[in-house]
Amino acid sequence: MNAITSLVRAEGLTRGFGGRAGLFRNATPVMAVRGVDLEIHRGEALGVVGESGCGKSTLGRLLLRLMPPTDGRVLFDGSDLAKTSRPGLRAMRRRMQMVFQDPFGSLDPRRSVGAQIADGLAAADPDRIAALLGQVGLDPAQAQRLPHEFSGGQRQRIAIARALAPKPDFIVADEPVSALDVSIQAQIVNLLADLRSELGLALLFISHDLHVVRHLCDRVLVMYLGRVVEQGPAAAIFADPAHPYTRALLAATPSMRQAQVGTALQGELPSVANPPSGCVFRTRCPEARPSCAEAVPMLETVAPGRQIACLRAKEIYACLTHPVASICWRAAGMRTRYETAPRA
Amino acid sequence: MRGHRLLLPGVLVGGMLLVALAGPLLPIADPVRQDVAGRLTLSSAAHWLGQDEFGRDVLSRLILGARVSLAIAVASTVLGAVAGTLLGLVGGYFRGLAEIVTMRTAEIVLCFPPLLLALLVVTLLGPGAGTLILCLAIVFTPAFARVAYAATLSVRALDYVTAQVALGKPAVLILWRTLLPNIAPPLIVQISLTVAAALMLESGLSFLGLGVVPPAPSWGLMIRGARATMEQAPLLLLWPCLALTGAVVALNLLCDRLREVLDPRGGGRGRPGFLRVFPALRTPSRDKAASTGLLALRGLTLEINGPFGAVPVVRDVSLTLAAGETLALVGESGSGKTLTALAAMGLLPSAVRVVSGQILYADRNGATQDLLRLPEKDLRRLRGQDLAMIFQDPSSSLNPLLRVGAHLAETLRAHHAGGPLTARVVDLLRQVGLPDPARCAQMYPHELSGGQRQRVMIAVAVANHPRLLLADEPTTALDVTVQAQILDLLASLKRAEGGLGMLFVTHNLAVVARIADRVAVMYAGELVEEGPVADVFATPRHPYTAALIASTPEGEAERLTAIPGTVPQPWAMPPGCRFAPRCSMAKPACDAAPPPVAIPAPGRATRCLRWEEMA
Q: How many other CB atoms sit within 10 Å of the CB of residue B229?
């Protein structure tokens, strides 16, 4: 991977909230994102998965510089966003866009959808607005209507049209289908997949729905409590999850077509304000050892393009390359079982 | 269409302004000409409302006084609104230093007593209408700043503002085009309150001699003058007070209507539907005895009073739940799945009406009751004891002021007299897998996480060993790892409480596969398919079920099979099969009449004409 081909590159991205010490303020910041490195190439779709509070939405906003990072930097097409001048940043913003989760909050209720799409254009060109509406599967004649006249799925299409208007290279989609019905979800997922292949868009797809991510993304980043615990090619991660958290997450995700046998995680996500020492996952991890409390595990490469942050990465790596993984997991004394079989 | 709502207040305020503006042109008496002989006389042909303590004409002073009073009120409000909104917008949007400068300044002014401020300004500038306007504007600015600031803070966090930032729009444009229109409604309310307050304050300050200088007419000066002679001529006090009240009411009405008209969604619609108890149906129940199983719905039809008259939201739904069985009710939003489930509890939003049908429930004594025809007293005895419910949002279904233990004790006490409750409460909390149940009973709901709160809700639901548990999307608001825990808990509770029937409402097919024995699929208010989960998922007999399964992003398909179009609105239902417009298998016969229920195999049902052609 060389730096020239990557469109978006984050180095040690960190963001804390409310850390400024003051007379009545707590001095310890809540770290929403901690030391995230990532790279997104042109036309690539990177999925970010994790439970609520893992920092995935904050990560998306940091990459677009909708909020400044506490530490670390974001390079977009080779230039550091923090060092870009204000007008330069405004111009650069047009090349990176965002699609939000809530189709009812992402459109201004008081302006026509055509006007809102035109916000992304250099000039309000009716032909271009009509073309964009057509591109997302809406009737171009509806440009004069107000957002409340559309259904949730149609609003999400309008929000996508607005994001496409300035011809961006990169789109952050923050849970764009979670608020939609199943049958509408499929329409939007297909639309995003089509647009990606037609326009060569790079996509950061944030979702808690692992099935959607598997369907749409090339690579996946698994986050837990602000840290990346596993990353790698989507197909490999879903077929053979390595990190104990990823395994538990997949085991917990109900599936219609497969019967899963897996270990249910005990307890719930610890508070972000008071994370465990050492490995953040150790309080719920079935494989945790006393040494996990001491040091924060770094991401280690376990297979080509795959990295996990776990003190037992070496044992896990051995099992991933073992001909019969499940035997190896058991032999290594690993308790996180994750096996699937097609439903009868 | 909504413009006519502005007509009445518009005419009132317009009339008032017109009279005030045209005052000098009207053929009325000179307001300052004194007539000592005629002082305090009542109404006459020359002086319709009589003469005041100097013999001046009251009507002409009232009309010309309106010019002064209204001008001061409107001008000071506009000045205050512009200045305050600007401060609030800038402070709320940019935060940081801008916030400190603007909001703290506003707060300092707010701390100053208005009267003291007025005295100060009047001393510096001398009395008069101009001074009064400036003084009132300063008094009103902080209130506008605070309202604008609060509204800006909530609107700037919305995604459409973030989207404008992401589009690289300059801040001035975002403030002007996006924020200002969206913070307008509370500001309009504030304006209406302020104009009224300004009229009052002008009167008060003029009354004290700080405002308009006599002999120029103003409503406040009129009140001041009339007070001295109120025992001889009480009517003199009445006229300016009436004018003041009328002006305030008319302006309030105008601003209220204006706020409604400016709301693109149309005010008033979309109020939350409160659950209420519905009256028992009068029509007698037919052949109750023929029911089998724990719960049987027969031909349930519910109506809602929509903008275009009564529309059926649930039509002719029939299903059966056996003891010990889990039946999943699946559908998209608007399919009527939650309403169907709520009706079984005898609870519905107030806009929904039961039209016909039966809900047959076999009680503990083996007798069959029709819940739709049961008096509320008997129904209440069943609820919480035989029938229990878990809701979607665990944070809003627990009373934040009550300890966890109190919720459980209340439920236990409602259906069992006395006895030591503490031990039972702790037992229940342990049963639902809460760590340290004794301590947990002493905690308040906000001290628990979402998953733990849902566990408490489940403990409340199973406290009295119900026979039927209704779970309305109980895991939708939870994370997957917690969802798995709750699903496991529900399954183990079912095993522990033998014979507990569960009606599980969800939109998630994968959850259905995990928890349910049988599944009922609803679409646009109708039950389209029913059967054992494994059979229905393996060989769906309705195109909607098949399309739902195909659109779920699992498996290796390169492209998802999306269902084109959207669910029809309840008031615009297709005449025939409701799925026909989106169905790939539709033929002309589908549009002609609603398809009857077909039985493809024992224990299965489908509402499709072409089920046999589905491979």
A: 15
Chain A residues close to B332, C-beta within 8 Å: 181-184
Residue B53 tokens, joined: 């303590």
**A190 min Cα distance to partner chain B (Å):** 6
Residue B272, pLDDT > 50, answer: no
Cβ-defined contact of B562 to A187 (cutoff 8 Å)? yes
Q: Decide if pLDDT at A221 tops 60.
A: yes
Verify whether the Cβ–Cβ distance B482 to A111 is below 8 Å.
no
- DSSP string over B301-365: EEEEEETTEEEEEEEEEEEEE-TT-EEEEE--TTSSHHHHHHHHTTEEETTEEEEEEEEEEE-TT
Residue B311 is predicted with a pLDDT of: 82
Q: Based on the number of CB atoms within 10 Å of its own CB, is A296 exposed (0-12), middle (13-18) or buried (19 or more)?
A: middle
pLDDT for B280 beyond 80: no
Mean pLDDT estimate for chain B: 84
Question: DSSP string covering B393-430, please?
Answer: -TTTSS-TTS-HHHHHHHHHHHHS-SS-HHHHHHHHHH
**For residue B387, what is the enclosing H or E element?**
strand B387-390
Q: Is A309 exposed, middle or buried (0-12, 13-18, 19+ CB in 10 A)?
A: buried
The pair of three-digit structure tokens given for residue B26, joined into one six-digit string: 């009207």
CA atoms lying within 13 Å on the CB side of residue B492? 12
Tell me which chain B residues have a C-beta less than 8 angstroms from the C-beta of A186: 551-553, 560-563
More confident: B549 or B272? B549
From B159, B166, B480, residue closest to A97, measured CB to CB: B166
What percent of chain B is modeled with pLDDT above 70?
93
pLDDT of res. B501 = 92
CA–CA distance from B226 to each of A62, A328, B51, B60, B191 (Å)? 68, 100, 11, 15, 30
Residue B176 DSSP code: I
Task: State the Cα–Cα distance between residues B416 and B452, nearest whole angstrom.
Answer: 26
* 8 Å CB contact between A180 and A134: no
Cα gap B349→B304, rounded to integer Å: 9
How many angstroms separate the Cα of B241 from the Cα of each of B28, B235, B398, B460? 21, 10, 50, 59
pLDDT at A3: 45
CA distance B432 to B469: 15
Distant-in-sequence, close-in-space partners of A333: CB < 8 Å, separation ≥ 6: none
Chain B residue numbers touching A181 (CB-CB < 8 A): 332-333, 507, 567
Per-residue pLDDT at B276 exceeds 80: no
A-contacting residues in B 510-549 (Cβ below 8 Å): 510-514, 534, 537, 547-549
Please tell me the total number of residues recorded for chain B in this structure.
Answer: 615
Nearest residue of B to residue A177, measured between CA atoms: B553
- Closest C-alpha among B300, B290, B384 to residue B343: B300
Residue B287 confidence (pLDDT): 66
Task: Using the structure block, give the residue that is written with the tokens 């699929």.
Answer: B521
**What is the overall mean pLDDT for chain A?**
87
Cα–Cα dist B476/B562, whole Å: 22
Lowest mean pLDDT across A95-99, A232-236, B228-232: B228-232
Strand partners, B468: B387, B501
Residue B51, SS3 per DSSP: strand
Length of chain A: 344
Kindly give the residue spans of alpha helices, DSSP state H, lying in B208-234.
219-228
Question: Which alpha helices (DSSP H) does A166-303 contain, by range?
Answer: 182-199, 210-216, 234-239, 244-252
Six token digits for residue B561: 């099979």
| pLDDT of A27 above 70 | no
Q: Give dist(CA A63, CA A83) in Å, integer.
A: 14
**Greatest CA separation found in chain A?**
66
Contacts of A281 (CB under 8 A, 6+ apart): A224, A225, A229, A244, A245, A288
